[in-house]
Description:
The complex is a heterotrimer.
Chain A: H1 2-6, H2 8-11, H3 14-32, H4 37-56, H5 59-64, E1 69-72, E2 87-90, H6 92-115, H7 122-141, H8 145-163, H9 170-201, H10 206-216, H11 220-237, H12 244-252, H13 255-280, H14 287-309, H15 314-333, H16 338-369, H17 385-398, H18 405-424, H19 427-455, H20 471-489, H21 491-507, H22 509-517, H23 539-559, H24 601-606, H25 608-617, H26 622-644
Antiparallel strand pairs in A: 1-2
Chain B: H1 2-12, E1 15-20, H2 26-34, E2 47-48, E3 57-61, H3 66-77, E4 84-88, H4 91-94, E5 116-118, H5 125-147
Parallel strand pairs in B: 1-2, 1-3, 3-4, 4-5
Chain C: H1 2-16, H2 21-42, H3 52-61, H4 73-93, H5 110-130, H6 134-166, H7 174-184, H8 194-208, H9 219-222, H10 232-257, H11 267-292, H12 298-322
Amino acid sequence: MMEMFNNYEVVKHFPVIAVMGLFLFAFLIEIFGAKCKIIRNTLTLIATGGAFALILGLIPMVFGEGNVISYWMGDWKPVAGYAIGIGYEVDALSLFFGLLVSGTFFLSSIYSIKYMSRDHHLGHYYTLFLMLSGSVLGLVLTGDIFNMFVMIEIMTFASVALTAFRNKKGIALEAGFKYLILGSIGSSLVLAGIAVLYMQCHTLNMAQISSIIGGAGLNPSLVFAFALMFAGFGVKSYIVPFHTPAADAYMAAPSSISMVFSGMVNKAGVYALIRLTYTIFNAMDIPAVNILLVTLGAITMFIGVTMALAQHDFKRLLAFHSISQIGYVITAIGLGTALGLSSGLFHAMNHTMFKGLLFLCAGAVFYATGTTDLDKLGGLSKRMPKTTICFLIGAFSISGLPPFNGFASKWMIYQSVYAKGVESGNFAYIFATIVALVVSVMTLASFIKVTQAVFFGQLPDKLKDTKEVPFAMRLPMWIMSGLCILSGVFYRFVDVNVLYPVRNAAFGVKNYISSMLGGEAAAAASNVSSEEFFTLWDPKLWLILFAIVLLAVCIVVLLGDKTLGAVRKNKASEESDGKYATFFGGEKSTHSHVAGSDLFWGFKKDFKGYFKFMQGMHSGSVNDYALYVVVGTALIVATMFIFVL
Amino acid sequence: MFKKIIAKSMSKSPWIYHVNTGSCNGCDIELVAVITPRYDAERFGFKLAGTPRHADIVVVSGPITSQSKDRLARTLEQVPEPKVVVSIGSCPQSGNVFKGSYSVEGPLEKYTHVDVAIAGCTPKPEAIIEGLYKAAQILQEKREAMEK
Amino acid sequence: MSETVVTMLTNAFSVLVFPGLLFVMIVGLLLAGIDRKVLARMQKRKGPPVLQPFYDFFKLMGKETIIPDAANRRVFLAAPIIGFVSLVVMVVLIPIGGYTPFGITFNADLIVMLYLLTIPAVALIIGGSSSGSPYAGIGISREMVTMMAYELPLVIVLLTVALKVGGGSFCFSLGEISAWQETNGALITHWELIPAAIAFLFVIPAEVGTQPFDVAEAETEICEGPLVEYTGAPLAMFKLNTAIKMFVMTALFTVLFFGNAVATEYLALNALIVVAISAGITVLSMTLAHAVCARLKIEHLFKFYWTVVTALAAISLVLVWCL
């Protein structure tokens, strides 16, 4: 059995089967599963689980032996040195994202079964769901840039339909419409970029384009194509100013889909950006590109988090945090250093875990109570204790509290950004470090707000009968929570076994080209610097010390149990309720819940002007949003022409 | 070992929660005077707590009006054991000049056991300090009684 | 075999006795006592005995613990302990007089310190939030805004120190910063870092939560904020946490701005020196401000930190960068 995974001739078919299988099952569900629940669920689980298994099967080949899997569709091999067929090329970078994609979709499909059971027309839902998963998986595995565009198109339209799936709500239709318009603009930018690129290089294979550009250098047309595609992928990964549809879409879509959007669909944009800058154009040695990415990243994280502070809907808040966290990733990958890329990828991976977890928690709250409005919720921790624990793990991870995974990756990001600043002598990086550190606290602040508004505080009378969500929904949440802790504590393991090969693949353009086209084409190559961490964070030792002290405290408490004041476990019968009631300055305790929307007014008051401006900018009008995309693209093109040429 | 330290600490660090049950504000001002630099009750460890949950000594001033009766009861309930109740001024003891009013439902003894009563209208700060000091000793005794 | 036992015993000793649990409890409460005593003397009062915080602590230990009905029992009880333990573990990582029981690089990193400092604050917030009281709701909101307020100047100060010490290279390790000062003189004597030091002095009271920056626990307005429902032992834990935070912050100041420049060969003497400097800084940054100022409003506090204190820190950063 294990032999199979080491046999290149067998393994090389896996990526294509995974992608094709997902598309095939999408249609099977539409044919057989429209009426019958059991067939539908089984087919979905088989498709996503099978895809996940196939991608897992690639690990020994790609991570273990460092191979790059290349596969020509229909065996259309290059003719006279020019790639004319569609090629699938799976290096460690593709596989890394492929694993995240297929894993996320698998968990999401488990969650969907229970979560979506109250909706109608589920046949369409699962069809679209599998279309989406197939397209995102295809996007990260393909080696052909036009194929990538096709996948982006399928992804966009499946996303639009899924965003508007609960179309009885006006907000869902509105969100779908915004997504449609802006997604189309983004795709068009990518298409325009690809057209220019094709004109220049006469090929659509990424490896070959990379080799041609590496040999001939950049000319104005190529820079234009680069800028257009940069902006197009920027729209797909929702960096500011292209972030506007994300907030609506993540809020309106069902949570199982929000999780996928936040976990993978915007990560696909990040993947495309990495491919574009690292592999195709090999542009990470150009300081202007670094500065552009870091600046965009810093702006994205700041605007994302401040907008999140102003939200009063659970899922909308999470959506803005997705934008903010993508800012971290973009900043880190924009550095072009080894540690920077590792930390960015690590953060992308962690973001998939904790943000997926948080969206699932939001979905659980919605499932149990029917709302995600922070002002209407409260005190759920007594009714939904398990969801609360999952949420706290997710919240602590995203806010970067040690020893959770968010801390490990953010800590790597700070190090890499600061080190780049010290090395290059550019103050912008130091400034970006400061922004990143402050944004992290603000992230914590807004999750404290959610914690207070949803899980702690007082329980409204309406929610007295709330029940914990079923096990089928909790299972993916527990898995994600476990991954959050494990990848935080054993981050060195992840770093050495996963991130090293991935980062070598991203920098090893030469290898990428030669394994696709044979030994003939190889011009560009990057040096893989093997920089290590500057200082050490050892969560295991920290946890051991923590445990020792905790043990000591527990022993003291146990020994002194008699002497210490009594902890009342249950009310003694003769005592009245008053003793255990909440203190209200002597008044009878009533419902007075401090909800989320106004929690940080001290902060908001000082930033009144800023918040007013930002709220004005996020007007909800598609015209404005389209304008931002156009202006943003124009700025990127201008920057590229001024600084890169 | 801890028993002795804890019992001793009880008398050394009594935290006060002050409830005004319709007082004319005279006693309240005198109570505040007690923590000013001139009288400085903090040298005995006295401190005004912000909530009854933190309090050891509940100081009640005023003749217990009907409006404040329930609120007083609730506040007293919420103080963790061991606790000491101190009445300050003549009003909680006898109703003082308010006695006989339709809205006065004193004295304080009707609702709770009063450990120390500081008489006077208003009592001098020195008297208040002495009363509170005694209350602190009673607190220690109560803690020792709880041990047994 | 015997070697591992010895290592384990020394590790346990450093976590539980010095510079861990026992040491930090005693020193923390002592600093809190000094703070109260000196404050009283500044106001021409006699003041409580220096051991007063010990009495408070033990008294609270002996009181009944009430868990309100609205509270989430587990979180309510676990929060103070987690905050306490993480603080104690943090102290072990601070190189007191260059003493690093777990090696010079282990975890004693500026960024790690910054994040470990947030755990006790989060413990306070989560604990208060779980008590279900609206006063606590307002308290945690203020605590969080305070945290956002001081974080910006604190971050800039830390990066300034790192830049100064590192020069053209990367240096976040507290041990290295401490050692650097042995040869180059204490950082406080470098004039361009004096604004940063002042900014740090301002950060300390906000981080610890003493007047005039104790808006989160304003006992006269919001009934001690997050602590409103806490009684007995958990409350004692939180009070202890505040006291330990005093030591942590002042010790951090000592490491950052005095470092090994004040260290001697003897560990006990070093500890004494650090405690003495900590006491001095406590008086300078916390007691003085407490005696002089009334409590700020939350929006004033935020504005103060993001303008005045940040400007001080930024001046140092720019000076260090340019020189």
